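Retro notes
What went well: the complex prediction finally ran end to end.
Inputs used:
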Amino acid sequence: MGKAELPLHTPGTQVDKGYIGQSVPRPNAQRLLQGRGAFTDDLRFPRLAHVAFFRSPYAHARIKRLDFSQAIKQPGVIAVFDGPTVAEYCTPWVAVLAHLKGIKSPPQHAIAIGRACWQGEACAAVIAESRSQAEDAVQLIEAEWEELPVVVDMEDSLKNTKTIHPELGDNICFKREHDTGGVDEAFAGADVVVEETFHFGRHTGVCPEGRAIVADYNAAEHSLTVYHATQAPHMMQDIFSRHLNIPEANVRVIAKDIGGSYGIKVHVYADEMATAAISVILRRPVKFVADRLESFLSDIHAREHRAKVRLAVSKAGQILAFELDDLTAIGPYSVYPRTSGIEGNQVVNLTGGPYKHQKYKARMHVVFTNKNVCCQYRAVGHPIAVALTEGIVDLAAQKLGMDPAEFRRKNLIADDAYPYTFPSGIKFEKLSHHKALDLLLKITQYSKLREEQAQLRKKKIYRGIGLAAMIEVTNPSPAFYGVGGARISAQDGATLRFEPTGMVTVMCSVTEQGQGTEGIFAQIAASAVGVSIEKVRVITGDTGVTPYGGGTWASRGAGIGGEAVLLAGRALRSNMLDVAAHVLKLEKAELDIKDNRIINKLTSEPKLPLEELGRVAYFRPDTLPLDFQSELTVTRHYTPRQYGFTFTNGIQASLVEVDPDTGFVKLLKHWCVEDSGTVINPMLVDEQIRGGVVQGIGAALYEECLYGPDGQLLNGNMADYLVPMSGEMPDIVCAHIETPTLQSQLGAKGVGEAGTAGAPAAVMNAINDALAPLNARVTRMPFTPERILKVLGKV
Amino acid sequence: MEQTLNVTLTVNGAQVTRNVPARQHLVDFLREELGLTGSHIGCEHGVCGACTIRVDGEIVRGCLMLAVQADGCRVDTIEGLSDSKELEKLQKAFHEKNALQCGFCTPGMLMAAQDLVRQGKKISREQIRNHISGNYCRCTGYQAIVDAIEEVING
């Protein structure tokens, strides 16, 4: 069988998978290793102007007067603009979606007009010949403010004693209730009821590269080219077009190398829209790169939740019902265009997700506050839902005196129960919870770990083992955004072009921020066409070049973009064989492509090198029949539509040691078993998981955006806001189960968010397991030494 | 007008002379004046390590040193150590183990790792983890980086 004879997962077929399943190093890593990448700030433009923003020092204040008279006179300063001036070129936006019923948010402008609603909101822009000149002049803007009442705490916001946007009536951005019925009865009849309130600290992505944009308006063409560190170039093309009133065809968005994104760079930022508008106003290229301090103040934050969760359980350890009451605060605006209602919505969708109970009641409020805006960040809602679920499950197991692994085995949805509808309404195509649990217990040597833990406890060494089973949303269909009216594509496309030299060029609408999407597209294309991987070049991140598509978010790149590449690769191979049949005067059915050659399918005898095929097709088509035209560029698209989301599952384990004298947590080891369907590149998949786990560990132990009662961010720099560094991180063991999705030929599900989804819960459960003999529990993330000492009654 | 000073330094083996603002950081000088954009600016307060470069043989934060302080110094950047092939083994190991994702921290990480390689002695994983704990990577979780450095140092 030829390499291209996919589908890979058809039961009973033996296929040569080509490069699929191999740990091929990423070709595009070479330039990054030599410092020869092209991050947005590395690009050079003639007549480039730099913008620096004058940001509100107050969390909530009326702008009574802005005086630019000194700023405008400074050396190198080209212009200074306020909100109303920029608004003449850039219309405001309102971030709501039709399928989030009742969601509301006020119009947001590129630069604040009349009022600032969080500390750090841009209120004026200085444009100068250099960034330092622009920053110097920002210092000389004089402003007169009238401070307004500040809403910082989310419980206060919900009470609505002070309304941030009076025209909206209250501080509730979005609320949702869900009830399967029968929940109260289940709790009334339960042998055991456990209840806990968990708190999650607001944190942020801390991309190594700050947000970056160079907007270059060409007045002669009325066209705008935007070099943008974005995950979604086509979404941004649409948005620049609509809000700057430039025809979409005249807007080109180019995303070159991007220094980390994790969801941070998939949103519309007011200061970036202002930069684009200023390029139009000044008719020259304008650059904005968020420095670290303004990144903390203006990159989206996420995950500030207070959630009460209850669990009804039978004596035998059967989960009967879940009940959830979640409150989350998102700052003063819902973020455009994805909205800030999604995270809370996901918490409702996913809580209790791995388990087979059928009774579920949930209530969730999303409220406005005068802090920086919040929106979707890697694993959106999952870290909250998994921690709530797994935290309360562990508490129930403890109350019943059952081992946490045994309790999970009793309650996880059976591996043969699919397709399955979960009580929140979401549908699972095929999951493998029990296989995953078995594999995890094997690789952790679970019973040995428990024995070791018991031995060490006698010596007053407090080790804990924490488990976290999880489900994750991947490969979203249009049900995520499109149905709500957002112009965000759930479809992606790939164009494959066979070059005269025998090379294959791949152009795909999914973008690359380091996950390795370009690498796996090369693997898929090479396998599907029948060429070796060094014959493939991949281009992504340019709306002027690639097919239309959604880009990179929600763990969709491999599953959706990869399928488009596969379909295009198979079509190209077929078209190449058409040409070969004419050149060789043989039947197409007798031929195949392997190792850069046309071969006889049965004997593998080489028939024609591909560069010869290219030469004839492009330069001597006169030798081909008159009624035949070769088509050696093909485009294919793919959208998952059968299920709203292609769920994956997995389970993590964390081993920690807690020092009850200092409150320090030492991470000894971490394990993750994941079922992400077909694994295209095991090394890259493991690296996605490891990186994600460490990001989740950050949330569990270190990261929190701390605000004072006046709405001032207290730790908005990297010295005070702690992130995981190498010294404290454990080695992470990954293992896989492969249950391909049958919705696609490739069978790949997503994996980018799994680590981040489950790690906080696993670490929390490990800490609480360690603290159990001391009768203490932590429920407020991040679990700092101070918080651990507090529950131990030592501070 | 802003005060400027003349500096002469050797960057990647070539002597350069420029008139620079007194307040300009060395990494800004490399990027803006010389177009050496491989050294990245991540935090500008000495925490993330993305701007790690070598000055007279010692690794420093390019954001915590002024260009004028480098007058008379020998400065080596990722571009220079790539061309001289000094980083070849590390780069190969990083590539094979995928010890980078977005690649933004990578030049600084390689400079820090090479500093360890140059010490020329066998070393534990924990020591490697500690040595690079001044270089922030958000993508990898560090394990592959530690693996790559370990392979180069310990074989």
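What we learned: Chain A touches chain B through 57 residues (CB under 8 Å).
What to try next: split runs per interface for comparison.
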